[in-house]
Amino acid sequence: MPRSVPDGKGPRKSERRNVQNNATQTALPENNLDILRAFAVLSVLFAHFIDNLGGRTVFTTWVGHAGVLAFFVHTALVLMASLERDDAPERTGWIRRFYLRRACRIYPLAWAVILFVLVARIPSGSINAPLEPRSAYTVVANLLLMQNWAGAPNVIAPLWTLPLEVQMYLALPICFLLARKPYGQWRIAVAIVCSVALAYANLWGLRPENRIPGLWRVQIPEYIPCFLMGVLAYALLRARGLRGAQARVPAWTWTFIIIGNMLAVGAVWLQGREYYHVLRWGYCLLLGLLIPLVSDAGPSALTRVAHTLAKYSYGIYLLHPLAIRFGFGTFRDQPMIIRSLVSFAVLGVACFAAYHLVEKPGINFGQRLLGLRNRPAPLEATATAP
Question: In the chain, how many H helices and how many E strands?
């Protein structure tokens, strides 16, 4: 909403622009996106929970990976809309503002978890993994979220995805500009084709017979198409809004579409992983194409639960290995149901505390730095992809 106008003065240029932009803002299916994000974090939680029970299979591995990929698509889409709502690209310093908001969103909780793990001397990996020494180099690489470039191990396993997200931030402003141009969806489609070619070139360079020194540090090319599928979804939603069109697929199908997509690609995944990267891209492409086609779900018990899970999803993602370790390690002699209940209870308390003591203050700090103290948090305040 535009700010109040001082007496005797007309509306400021920025306020007039805000009024115009609000009329043409891209409408997101926010309830559907909450459901997608809830599915993503529950998939990761399920896969890691089964791993610690000793029931890891190729399919459960895919379920966890599908959750991570869904996060990538969701985050890219939400960040595009957030840039739009921040009046980019017209607003002065919009790229700086974007990076500052993202830093205040993603780093505080990551730092808090890393420092807790180091102080408590908690091993990474499963509950039976031994504690390995962590050098200062490893600690700094993790704090900067640059483990892949640095060739350093992750302090805790879920951290492997955060460097990919941080590195993709470098390209998202350019993607935003492309998506907003006329026929933006086709421009993004071309970008996806180019990113797939880049990913194949990167994979070629990683083969033993073609190995290029140091290329193993660059993991992001394989995942760029996944992020771009979220940008494609934004471009399609924007084009639909400009045409005044409506989604045609009923909202009740959305949950079945999400699960069906995961199961269908998972069935192919079980047949062999020679083309696992193609399956990843295909899975994300289906999400990117289907998000704009499905009507947004109305308020219900499902959407309320999904919204709560989405709100605390970053904490769930980072903290669930610690909660599982506590429940299954400290209470290893107790029945399975007791260990499971303790793990989920600890996770719930930890996520609630993490959000209100670390995440929310970080978001508010970023708003104060940008002069947004009295405005609602940008949409991206809820977007942190693991």
Answer: 16, 0
